[in-house]
Amino acid sequence: MLLNSLSIIIPLNYIFAGMALLAFIVHGLIGLSSHKHSNVGQQNRYFSTLCLLALGFYVFNGQVLSAPTIADVNTPLLLLRSFADIFFMFYPFYFAAYFHRLKIFAWALVPVWVVIIVLNWVLPTGVTFESIQRINHIQLPWGENLTWPAGKLSVWIQLQTLASLIAVWGCFIYAMIANIKKHPQSRLLVTLASGLFAFALLNDSLIKLQLMSGVFITEYIFPFFILLMMRELFFQLWEVSELESKLVIYRDRYLNAEKLERERIADLLHDGPIQSLSLARLQLGVPSSLGLAPDQIISLAIGDIRKAVDNLNPKMLLQETLENLLSTIALKTSKELAVSCQYISNGISTERVSIDIKGIVVDCVNELIRNVIRHAEASNITIESRWSNDMLIVSVTDDGQGIPEEKLRTEHYKWFGYGLWRIDTRLKAENGSMHIENNTKGTRITLSIPCKIKDEHN
User: Is the pTM of this model over 0.70?
Assistant: First the structure.
């Protein structure tokens, strides 16, 4: 038969070992480049680590640059003496990473593999298939000789053989069955593997070339399986990329729908409640003898609705800088309400932030000012903004009576009142935070939100 010629068998062995090396490199690159939170990335990081271990062991033993010759076929070494041996030795752990039910099984074999490595180092050189049973001693790394009766296989060698067969064929068969269920095209690979295995059992010359026929033929089967696994991994990475693209599209659609809804609500408020409240204030004609309390209440309501309309209008958020928006809030507060409000900017006059962040900041500042007007009995309000390590810091300070300690935290809300709880929730959604400094001389509430500075075209 053609494969009886050693000159043919040895080149084939190196060809498949080279395929295994290529598979190691490709799998390692995929694993290192995969997204850390994706299942594909987790699976491939397992295998990329094993790739480095296997290649490191291979180089350490000098097997890369000094390939065996034809004569070495007559003295085949035990496991780990060729790259293909290292390849199929570590591959069960990749099965364990890919098929989660095998994790405990594969990692339980770690002590067995340690024994195999030690055995490989301490066995005498020149071991052949015919002479393996004549070995009756090994020298341990610390110099002690371990002997057993001649003519009987060492328990270690039996353990090595059994562990190899279980790890290789057990994991291989399980992986193949699982893969067939998911990908019917894998049946072609099963047919090829079965044919090669049957050929190995029928051809005595192949059996004599290695310690175990199953080990030898596995070197020829695994590269094909690796190619199939590589194909599957590439498809998974492509699917992840497609999902990310769809998420971007859906996010754009959501933002556009939100913009349209903001415009609709703004128009609705402007044409309805604002006009009705303005007419009611004119019709009241409150004389000075009756006081101005009703007029103040209506003015405050109109101001709140106008602020809501301004905040809902995406055009204003898009066109104005954050500094201008906060400055406008301070001016309107001082003009429409009986309180002095000023805005102090510390270094954001030339920057622009995203429309989403601006909307959150404006809403939160308006809510804080409303709380001051209604509860603090303050005369002065100060709004400040600054940057600190890519964090936008905005604070609202008043000189009112402060928040009572017994009301600062309640059973239902972390912060006193629904308004502060809503602010805290919105900031946390953007990985931000809210800090309250409270005393009887006033309150200072600081908002921190991470954001990147945008240019004027964003």
Answer: no
